[in-house]
Amino acid sequence: xxxxxxxxxxxxxxxxxxxxxxxxxxxxxxxxxxxxxxxxxxxxxxxxxxxxxxxxxxxxxxxxxxxxxxxxxxxxxxxxxxxxxxxxxxxxxxxxxxxxxxxxxxxxxxxx
Length: 112
Description:
Elements: H1 2-24, H2 42-51, E1 53-55, H3 63-74, E2 84-85, E3 92-95, E4 102-103, E5 110-111
Parallel strand pairs: 1-3, 2-3
Antiparallel strand pairs: 4-5
């Protein structure tokens, strides 16, 4: 019985030590003050373009996201790095009319 408790106790300690580095890792905070795009790893950008499907509905100020993405796509060093479209055919799938998930054109929420 004592050996089982000892083994269980050691297993718990080993598990806690194995999980500690991830629990203590610092968060990555990216906000409007992070403006040096060269610090963003290319792999993160490619993963976002491959895996994210962003849909939102907005009023006038929400179009600034699209305007910003268009500006990045038209800036020579970033032509393909930050490419995107509203139908997902090229780069990041970014739809500012919310039609990726639902079609509101008939006055009701329908899965697209």
